[in-house]
Amino acid sequence: MWNVRFFETLSKYTKNNLEKEILRAYNECKLDLEKLKRKKLSKLNFNKNGNLIKRIFSTFSIMPSIRYTGAAKILHILNPNVFMMWDLQIRRAYFKINNNIRDPAKFYLKFLQKSKKIINAILKLVDEETLWIYHLEFIDKNFVKNFSFSETILKMLDECNYLKFNQNIDF
After folding, report:
1. Non-local CB neighbours of 72 within 8 Å, separated by 6+ positions
2. Could you count the other beta carbons within 10 Å of the beta carbon of residue 109?
3. 86-133: per-residue pLDDT in tens?
């Protein structure tokens, strides 16, 4: 479950509406999400797709039971090749901001732009398939085998962000 600390502070009414709010946001964004279906963050044109991404992120993040962290995680599940996950610590690290974000969709778009630069720098050094093979050394191989599991480069970067900014592990 994402953002457990935040979720625990919500009212029972809000918790009970999580499923409805996810479905409502999804239905509002279904056509927009379809436009990004075959895209990859590493090749995404932000001039063409920036407003689309902001609109999608806003639709999810304004829901009381979802908010910013939940929106990024839900969107990553819906399209793991475009949407990066983030949480409060990662937002703070990337933007040196406090808890009160005036325009979360704008910050999320900037986060995706920064992530794209990082990903493209990595892809200049190693292709995604080789990176995945190297990454397999650090994860449970039975899980990968049993569930035909594969991580995107976005998820691998998210894991690096988490280790660096939540666990204070430098690598």
Report:
1. 57, 83, 84, 85, 86, 87, 108
2. 19
3. 888 888 888 775 555 678 899 999 999 999 999 999 999 998 888 888
